[in-house]
Write a structure and sequence with these properties.
Helix 3 packs parallel to helix 4 and helix 5 runs parallel beside helix 6. The protein is α/β, with parallel strands linked by helices. It is elongated and about 80 Å long. It contains six helices and 23 strands.
Length: about 475
């Protein structure tokens, strides 16, 4: 959130992104949604491993069937020199009571095609093709026009395995077609089983909110009343609990607001993300440097030096200890700094930021071993995230943080597209460094520099969709006044 903007609405929605696995999820399902590349010949590049958007597959669980093939599905291989076999499998399923077996027994240059027609696609909308599968050959997924000239809208070769896995393809459409068709294609001899990914309700622990001034003890009016929306995590950003607000002078602490927020979180049964951020002017290595909290130097020095690395690391250690002692045992999260790729928030080096992570992580795990550490979230900064991971960031956190934003003038379509692309890039960066820790988007939305709530976009109020046993993947969000 941009602190230089005064807002009349103090609630900001944020979403925690992939991947949060519940206890008991099998190892076979740990590598989720790896196949999500969209064919750039027909669809704008806009895909990432979360499943959200309008689901295109109907009867993907094959629970309704004739014993051979699922209702609404048909074999479209009669034209090809192939020998096929379909069967409804009841002993080997991913979910429910049935899965679809598709076998290519022989081929002389053709392919087996299992089709579902009558699919309606709208322009500038987001869709998902989500399914579970297992088999001994690759499975090609095709979305195309259902009649001549059979224009291909999307095609993806899915490298499935011999054990059940979950897969999703996302499409940000640039076309309309009320008679499109979806195809599962076997291009060689082999067998594939297909089933659905069960719908799960997104738990409120993966729906987060900013409430800027919930505490009655906050010295900045007006106080924000507790929101009516149900949520599970409250991020204490712009809540008057950053280090400069808590320790205004060395060893002079003002902790009433923090303690009140901790009590509110306990009362309402929500967990906190507590950002550990900013150097007080007295503790800053550059006490006269401007930050996001002041446009120019003033006599109060409020905001001066806040973005700089601490002059004495022991001051930072002591600050972290104080916070951990007050929060311990509550299952809260600790987030190291904020948007470090913006110099108005952090003017130090990557090595200095890694040092802050290392010091905080060590102290937090000693004092509050149940607490989880979220890494400093760059804003749309995938290249900066790359630099942090290269410097060893993953060794000093439990969750990788990121902030995804778009511009206010963007349409809902462009908003979704940009957020999906950046999320995909972030996941690819984690994969590059073999980091398997969850990626959480702890702040997101349309960037709107306005005090007028009426300027907020009316179109983007979603998306929330979850698919997959034990894996909850909320969609994207905007800033939302409530």
């Amino acid at each position: 959130m941009r602190s230089t903007i005064n807002r009349s609405a103090h609630y900001i929605v944020f979403i925690l992104l992939l991947l949060h696995l519940s206890a008991g999820t099998s190892a076979a399902n740990d590598e989720l949604f790896e196949n999500y590349i969209i064919d750039p010949r027909h669809i704008p590049e806009a895909a990432y491993p979360d499943s959200f958007g309008i689901e295109l597959i109907q009867n993907g669980g094959f629970e309704d069937h004739d014993g051979i093939i699922g209702a609404g599905w048909r074999d479209d291989s009669a034209w090809a020199p192939v020998k096929t076999e379909y069967a409804i499998e009841t002993n080997d399923v991913f979910n429910g009571k049935a899965s679809q077996k598709i076998q290519c027994k022989s081929s002389e240059g053709g392919f087996v095609s299992c089709a579902q027609g009558g699919i309606s696609i709208g322009n500038e909308k987001t869709y998902s093709i989500s399914f579970s599968a297992k088999g001994d050959i690759a499975l090609e997924v095709v979305l195309r026009k259902g009649s001549h000239p059979y224009t291909y809208y999307a095609t993806e070769m899915v490298n499935i395995k011999n054990e059940w896995g979950k897969y999703a393809i996302q499409i940000a459409s640039s076309f309309s077609d009320d008679k499109a068709a979806l195809y599962f294609i076997l291009n060689q001899v082999g067998t594939v089983y297909i089933d659905n990914v069960p719908e799960d309700i997104i738990p409120d622990t993966l729906f987060g909110l900013h409430i800027n001034y919930a505490s009655k003890k906050t010295p900045v009016p007006p106080q924000s009343p507790w929101p009516f929306a149900q949520f599970g995590i409250w991020r204490l950003w712009e809540s008057y609990v950053s280090w400069p607000r808590l320790e205004t002078e060395k060893n002079k602490w003002y902790l009433d607001v923090l303690d009140d927020n901790l009590a509110l979180a306990k009362e309402h049964a929500v967990r906190l993300i507590i950002p550990l951020a900013f150097s007080p002017t007295w503790a800053s290595s550059r006490p006269d440097q401007l930050s996001a909290y002041n446009k120019k130097a003033d006599s109060s020095k409020d905001g001066l030096g806040w973005a700089a690395y601490p002059r004495n690391i022991e001051d930072f250690r002591n600050y972290v200890r104080i916070i951990a002692e007050r929060s311990k045992g509550s299952g809260n999260f600790y987030e190291i700094w904020n948007e470090p790729n913006a110099s108005v928030f952090f003017s130090g080096t990557v090595d200095e930021l890694i040092t802050l992570h290392k010091e905080a992580h060590m102290i937090l795990k000693q004092i509050d071993p149940t607490g989880m550490v979220i890494s400093s979230p760059p804003v749309n900064g995938i290249s900066y995230l790359d630099r942090l991971l290269a410097a060893g960031l993953a060794d000093y956190c439990d969750i990788i943080g990121i902030h995804l934003y778009t511009e206010a003038q963007d349409s809902i379509y462009n908003c979704q597209k940009l957020l999906m692309i950046n999320s995909r890039r972030a996941h690819q960066t984690l994969k590059k460094y073999k980091v398997t820790k969850p990626l959480w988007n702890t702040e997101s939305g349309w960037l709107i520099e306005s005090d007028n709530f009426n300027n907020y976009p009316k179109k983007c109020t979603r998306l929330f969709r979850s698919r997959g046993g034990g894996a909850y993947r909320p969609g994207l969000c905007r800033k939302l006044g409530m």
